[in-house]
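hi support,

uploading two proteins for the ticket. first:
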Amino acid sequence: MKKNIAYIKSLVLLVLVVFLYGFTGQRNEIRLVEDTPVEFTNGANLFLSHEMVNKLLIQKSGGVKNKAKSLINLHSLENGVFANSLVENAKVYMTIDGYVKTVITQRTPVARVNTGSEVYYIDKQGIKMPLSVNYSARVLLISGSVADEDISNIFSLVSKIKGDAFLTKLVVGIHKSAGKEYVLQTRMYDQKIQIGEIQDLNVKFKKLEAFYNRAIQDKEIGKYKTINLKYNNQVVCTKD
């Protein structure tokens, strides 16, 4: 008899739990979205604003605020945000307190290219990236006859410069000629460093650093206008 009573109590408790779970789930599904917060993972929202992200959500769904949670297609919203060319990664999810939250990683530019007819960034993955009306990044400036097929070479050169403390302090711009040759613009002394084609960069930049160390020691560095690294085992310079 006691076993039957215990069994009945357990059954009643189970039914009650299932009922409460279903009731809570149903209420949760019809709960309205209260807000749509946006979080940027890589610092301040430089290129995209919260308003811009919310516009992307509205364009994809007609707006999610005050809609029932059951009517929200998170996958569709996420794809809509991710489709923006300034976004590297995006995650849209529903919080337990009724918010549709968007977490965004913006793309990171490493160089700005101006061909005369087109202006764009190259991002840290070596991919073209559009400019933003919100923010202009302080990065290496690339000019000259740059075509899409040159981006890979330019990215390797930019990566080399950014990965070297001496070059990072020295170089502010890169110019590509109509051929395959490149010229670096220095931060100080307004000098042009001719490196030729993108090859043997380690050798060329070791020569450059050794030349600068010697010229600075001799207090001669400010007298040079061009520094040519294209020739083997030598640095050819011209003075003002």
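and the second one:
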Amino acid sequence: MGILEKYHCGIDPGATGGIGIIDSRGQFAAAHRWDRKNPARLYSIILLLKGMVDKIYIELIQTFPQKDVGFITRNQATLVNYGIWQGMLYAAGVPFVTISPITWQAATGLRSWQAKQKLNPAAPSPLSLARQLWPAAPLPYLADDGKAVALLLADLARRDSLAGIDRAAIQAQAKAKAKAKALRRMSKLY
């Protein structure tokens, strides 16, 4: 990674997640899988990125209650990882923006990719798209899907930067509007 060059980074905080880094031209720079036994190694990578990225895009993790057995334990690792990644970003002082799966999937042409793959196993997935876009990226295994998503998030960060899109500001504005709307509704009740 060059000293003055800007990079773009994405993080998939899932159980098989990872971190992906591309340069300002969209070329592959690095990708690392989540390592629950050694998150300090990933933290050191984040520290190296300080000042080299404007902000990191991290996939938003949301869980919705379900009635099936084991729901809580199946999703616990993902929620813990999400918290660890956020903690590392806060500790490193690296700004980040949460990106919903719907947003990055739409931006990469992978909207409803899982449903499409059920109908046609040859339909594109995050892993197949990342392999196509970055043939030099180390993505040989199915378990590299998290690194693939991270690279796609990094590319979305790059494209947003080129287009002048500030997703953090957009999200803050949406939250402010929702809060104002809720306050108006509450004032009508009293």
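thanks. also noticed: Residues 7-165 form a domain with the Nucleotidyltransferase; domain 5 fold (CATH 3.30.420.10).
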